[in-house]
Amino acid sequence: MNIEILVGNETGTRAYLPAVEEGIEWTTERKGAPGKLVFKVVKDDLLDFSEGSAVRMKADGRGIFFGFVFKQQRDREGIITVTAYDQLRYLKNKDTKVYEGKTAAQLIRMLAKDFALNVGTLEDTGYVIPSRVEEDSSLFEMIENALDQTLTNTGEMYVLYDDFGKLALKHLSSMYVGAPGAYLMIDEDTGENYEYTSSIDDSTYNKIKLTYDNEDTGKREVYIAQDGSNIYRWGVLQYFDTLSKGENGRAKADALLKLYNKKTRNLKITNAFGDSRVRAGSMVVVNLDLGDTRLKNFMLVEKCRHIFKENHHRMELTLRGGEFIG
């Protein structure tokens, strides 16, 4: 695999192709974290970069990462460990926003304009959020809240990521790695090891209770959806929340029960053969015998860590799908 890392100078007028030591790490997470690139370069008389300098990485000519230097660490041997983040790092900025009648995609476009972020393809998320007040919240939190509302009201999940320097928002159906008949598969041959747990201790609810204080009628409306068979098996595991004006309480309660009324299963694949197309938010086929269940299905990558060495590319994946949750 041919890896190329370019680093710009402070003013952006020059780009350097530094001597990079093996052991490059590229990490992405589906929610609440920017993509991160960590690499080591050998300091020489020509190399001139600083915090804020642009970083570009390609693998076999394919754009993998575009971001900016945020941290440098030097040792006595003249080795500089560089930590760079993609554009999502700026979503850690906090602000207060009040908006109404916007979809999650429209909210992202509004925030991107306010903070001078580059935007690529933002797929239409459909669901219009009636109104929302986000006070002293990070941009990450604002966007995650909007995407969570879209999920709970429609059952549709969208993934926000940085696509080589541009914000992208895609539906899960656009995130499959490969094509029909040639999807990427993780199995006993391509994944060296795995860690697998199952639980009802986190993110499992068999009773949903939502309330709304109706100012027009002066009454509190209560919406309940529950599964009696799972209450008998596990006891009552209740999810409670309040509704905003304009939300469909019955539909939301039913959608939440469908989403959370199941065991959660956590699967982490270690030392798998690397594929630079895979990132957090990707959908891959997993075919593994896990002991109490045989898995052969598409799964969502919650976290992905790539390790690039000379003629050696491996990745670690935390997966979610069906009853699996990353």
Oligomer: single chain
C-alpha geometry: globular
Beta percentage is over 45%
Could you give a short account of the major beta sheet? 13 strands, mixed
Radius of gyration from CA coordinates? 22 Å
Number of strands: 21
Quickly describe the structure:
The chain has 326 residues and is mostly beta strands.
SSE arrangement:
Blueprint: E1 3-8, E2 15-16, E3 24-29, E4 36-42, E5 54-59, E6 62-74, E7 79-86, E8 94-102, H1 104-114, E9 119-122, E10 129-138, H2 139-154, E11 158-162, E12 167-171, E13 185-186, E14 191-199, E15 207-214, E16 219-226, H3 228-234, E17 238-242, H4 249-260, E18 264-273, E19 283-289, E20 294-309, E21 312-320
Parallel strand pairs: 9-12, 13-19, 15-17
Antiparallel strand pairs: 1-2, 1-5, 3-4, 3-20, 4-7, 5-6, 6-7, 8-10, 11-12, 14-18, 15-16, 18-21, 19-20, 20-21
In words, what does this structure look like?
This protein has 326 residues and is mostly beta strands. The longest helix has 16 residues, at 139-154. It contains four helices and 21 strands. The model has no long low-confidence stretch (mean pLDDT 90). It has helices at 104-114, 139-154, 228-234, 249-260; strands spanning 3-8, 15-16, 24-29, 36-42, 54-59, 62-74, 79-86, 94-102, 119-122, 129-138, 158-162, 167-171, 185-186, 191-199, 207-214, 219-226, 238-242, 264-273, 283-289, 294-309, 312-320. Strands 1, 2, 3, 4, 5, 6, 7, 13, 14, 18, 19, 20 and 21 form a 13-stranded mixed sheet that branches. Helix 2 (139-154) packs across helix 4 (249-260). It is globular.
